[in-house]
Amino acid sequence: MRPRAIFLLCFAVAAMTLPKFFNALYAIFVTPGLYSAVWLISNALVLISCYGLWQMRRWGVYLFLVGWGLKLAGILWFPVTQGRSQWLFWFPLIVMLVYLAVVAHYWQDMDGKARETD
């Protein structure tokens, strides 16, 4: 049985990433470029990582870190300009920290290893 926290984390991350994925897919055709490609790839990796986390696999966590790291690198690569909020940088960082905090609690349960309870 999947823990409720993992279910909520998968749902929240997928709900945040799915619209961004479709927006990135649109952007790759409208304004093709390196940033659009990186944005599309990072969102695709995060969506695939949701499936891995749903299946309680460690590769899902690793894939999330790669995809989310690409997002953060893209934000740092194209710095916040006039009129854009600093929240654009801090929100993904906070999401990643919450993700890691939840996953750390269930790390022993990943890959089918059950916890030993006496």
UniProtKB/TrEMBL annotation:
This is Uncharacterized protein. The chain crosses the membrane at residues 34-54, 61-81, 87-107. It comes from Methylomarinovum tepidoasis. Keywords: Membrane, Transmembrane, Transmembrane helix.
